[in-house]
Amino acid sequence: MPDEPAPDADRPTLDRSAAWRDHLANERTYLAWLRSALAVLALGLAAARFGGRGGVAAGAILTVVAIAGLVFGAARYRRGRRTITTGVLPAGGGTAPIIAGVILVVSFLLAFLVLELAD
């Protein structure tokens, strides 16, 4: 009876389940970027509202950082989805270390600005 499907033909194959797992991990990473950006935005709004003289500048900088995080997270999600779907890994070192460095430098500048304006 060669026309009958194998008993476990309806079960997902290893490749299909691995792709689903990768898609779900990509989505979790995007949601983490979204959550972090919203937390930075909330911190920026609180700094602008309650921060005194330096609070408005701190709030503006944190808002820009939050928007950059949202844009970067969305771009990373789309790139990850395309990579998983096509199965072709792009060459390159990635931009995450660059973004992390920029956020670190902006944070130090923000701290310096707030401390200078507080005196």
Automatic annotation (TrEMBL):
The keyword Transferase does not apply. Keywords: Cell membrane, Membrane, Transmembrane, Transmembrane helix. It comes from Actinocatenispora sera. This is DUF202 domain-containing protein. It holds the Pfam family DUF202. Its main location: membrane. The chain crosses the membrane at residues 30-50, 56-75, 87-115. The keyword NAD does not apply. InterPro entries: DUF202 (IPR003807), IM_YidH-like (IPR052053). Residues 21-81 form the DUF202 domain. It is a multi-pass membrane protein. It is found in: Cell membrane. One of its GO terms (cellular component) is plasma membrane.
